[in-house]
Design goal:
Elements: E1 11-14, E2 22-29, E3 37-44, E4 50-53, E5 62-69
Antiparallel strand pairs: 1-4, 2-3, 2-5
């Protein structure tokens, strides 16, 4: 087990994630993106909570969405 401390990060929570799904965080230009871009953060569902964040850093100029792929 490796621990990591992250400060000043905005994370997006997926509650009760599906073990059958892969989740990815996408961003686009706020307030209403014409196109969405993968932030590069992916997580596999585990039946519990997942926390997704933008590896490039959260920005108020972006809108975010979480996409589940089954």
């Amino acid at each position: 087990f490796q621990s990591m401390t992250i400060t000043n990060v905005m994370a997006f929570r997926v509650g009760q994630s599906s073990p059958l799904a892969d989740y990815r965080l996408e961003s686009g230009e706020a307030p209403a993106p014409a196109a969405w871009t993968n932030t590069g953060f992916r997580a596999t569902g585990n039946g519990g909570d997942l926390w997704l964040y933008d590896p490039m850093g959260f920005a108020t100029s972006k809108a975010y969405r979480v996409v589940a792929e089954y």
